[in-house]
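Subject: 3-isopropylmalate dehydrogenase

B.,
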Amino acid sequence: MNLNIALLPGDGVGPEVLAQAVKCLQAVEETFNHEFVFKEALVGAAAIDKKGKPLPQSTLKLCQDADAVLFGAIGDPKYDNDPEAKIRPEQGLLELRKSLGLFANIRPVLSHPSLLHKSPLKKEIISGTDFVIYRELTGGIYFGEKKLNKEGTVASDLCEYSETEISRIAHLAFKAAKGRKKKVTLVDKANVLESSRLWRKVVTRIGESYPEVTLDFLFVDNAAMQLVLNPTQFDVILTENMFGDILSDEGSVIGGSIGLLASASIGDENALFEPIHGSYPQAKGKNVANPIASILSAAMLLEHFGLMEEAMAIKLAVDKSLRKGIVTPDIKSKSQFGTQQVGDYIAHSIVDIEDNFRV
Ligand code: IPM
Ligand code: MN
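Prediction pasted inline below.
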């Protein structure tokens, strides 16, 4: 298969982890005889520094023309503590999601058998966790009207959803559940919010056309508690933009490190793949950031194009590195392996796995 992949390294550790994902895709390319063409562009603080905007027009164009986007990370602390800053790196990612129509953000959460001890949660609680969050990504409070009065003393952000925005992601969530454990949990705050009541109405109606899938509901406060009390109860969690943002960071505690969680952002015409972690500026250039979330994002990219065996080769190679302890210090504190060594090991194992298949 020929794929044009736009690479957006972004800020902090983004470039380092993305480089490892590219190595793995190149290993897949060689082993399975595909042709991947990579083109790189600026985004985030890196783009503000060089071009004055977090999402330059040329970057957006490159992404629109590509088959898929592989994204590193975004954010720079110099903007975080300045409430007056008009331009922020994160705007680049938000604009990109909106312009590419990436309405569904898919975040799998798994407990890895060899990492159960890494989670601050008890083994018995997290063992066997396997759920996926379907987070709405281009609506809600993130994109509603924002206001600040003249005096700068009153501010508001509108949380607005339309039936269309709810139903298109709900269909994806139900379809995913059909191929999994056949359960969708809608997380909302329908006891308080009008927008949540609309979600319930629309999702309930759509659920009727998926009779094999059970639908249940949880208020977001309860969901936050259930996620750490009894995470194995979940299969597909469907939720709006901000609740999904918050719950997916909480979910990362189950996996043992936020450096392991990958995500896919899907629209009708475009797709983007990125780790859920941020730019981790303290680690920039130190060769310590975990590349696995980025590498697993590349595996999700392959799955998106139906390259299941190729994606599996990456996932098995990642498993092997975790089992053998070829991991970064977030997983094993005194590890002598860095970002690049872990990336190299996984990329080489991809080749091995394919050889094993042939024998
Ligand atoms: C995420 C991030 C982004 C979000 C930020 C960087 C805008 O936290 O992808 O989860 O809030 O969506
Ligand atoms: Mn987030």
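The two ends are 24 Å apart (CA to CA).

T.
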